[in-house]
Amino acid sequence: MDNENQAVTLPRIGDKAPAFKVVTTQGEIDFPKQYEGHWVILFSHPADFTPVCTSEFMTFAHLEPEFEKLNTKLVGLSVDGLYSHIAWLRTIKEKIEYRGMKNIEVKFPLIEDITMEIAKKYGMIQPGESGTKAVRAVFVIDPKGIVRTVIYYPLSMGRNFDEMLRVIQALQTADAFNIATPADWRPGDDVIVPTAGSCGVAKDRMDGKQEGVTCHDWFFCTKKISKDEVMKKILK
Question: Which residues, in sequence order, are CB contacts of 170 under 8 Å at separation 6+?
Fold first, then answer.
């Protein structure tokens, strides 16, 4: 079987994040071991010195303090070499102004992966899109090193950063309150409570006997958690 027809493998939600030790623009890292206790966004980009990637890295760096407040670290990757990474990031800082962002310094690590070993391990090389460039993959990894969310974008499309912040907020809120979040949820919106474990509990909910719980039907009940309460739980 030739390489282009081989199945692309990638970590699935609930899997342990594949481990690696690698050189980055911020020195060597041991992933995910050294990030234990933190959430991590591990993301790939197709190539240095390209416009879509430049817009993304500026946005990541600009929003890094917001991710830090959510105990979330950023780690980038492309199949370019370390010196290309350094030169590109220096160019961004010294020359690029975009959407009011300028003098942007990228302080999070950018992985050198010229052998494509890590990109292949994470399914970031997808031959139907490109056999030599990583697609725009996003892996959200929790403090225990477990993959919690996987998002893929094609080479031509920049990522939605509001959505990445929302994903982190939603995952952390679900963990903190043992709930689920509905479509388009934002902190302060109603959340979904777990399905009742017994007929009696379900009946009480439907009869309005559980304070603060609103049931649209027996299987779909919500409650209010204020934005202040959510943010108090999830912000550092």
Answer: 181, 185
